[in-house]
Write a structure and sequence with these properties.
about 150 residues; Ferritin; 5 helices; about 75% helix; elongated; binds fe (ii) ion
Length: about 150
């Protein structure tokens, strides 16, 4: 069996941690968002945390299939994530900007991982690329909601 590199495992685990933090953060915004766009964004944020929870599982299980050990506690997520937890008191626009920024960061890390993986494994690359593509689309849609 082809094993993926330690570096590739690290890259996948990085995204498990990021998704773990993002999942909670999207709920936070889903609950605390206010303003004229409430109905649209409340539903959008639910769609996003549902998607994140699915992708999070995909990445963690890809790691397990390659004898990796996905982070699986909140403590580990906070320790290893490159995105930060939600802050209180943000406006709806600031929440959207924050999600765009986190998604951009995650997407960049995924594309960097694909480019720099030592052991090329198409299944890992395919998972990351599929997620990076969907994230790009979500960023585009979120940016459009910020146009006044
Ligand atoms: Fe809800």
């Amino acid at each position: 069996m082809n094993m993926i590199s330690t570096q590739a495992k690290k890259a996948l685990n990085q995204q498990v941690a990021n998704y773990g933090v993002l999942f909670v953060k999207l709920h936070n915004y889903h609950w605390y968002i206010n303003g004229p766009e409430f109905l649209t964004l409340h539903v959008k944020l639910e769609e996003l945390y549902t998607w994140v929870s699915e992708q999070y599982d995909v990445v963690a299980e890809r790691l397990l299939m390659n004898h990796g050990e996905p982070y699986a506690t909140l403590k580990e997520y906070l320790e290893h994530a490159t995105i930060e937890e939600a802050k209180r008191g943000l406006s709806a626009d600031e929440m959207v900007e924050s999600v765009i920024s986190d998604f951009s960061q995650i997407r960049k890390e995924m594309l960097d991982a694909i480019e720099h993986l030592e052991t090329h494994d198409m299944t890992v690359e395919d998972d990351l690329l599929a997620q990076a593509k969907e994230i790009e689309k979500q960023i585009w849609m979120l940016r459009a909601t910020l146009e006044k």
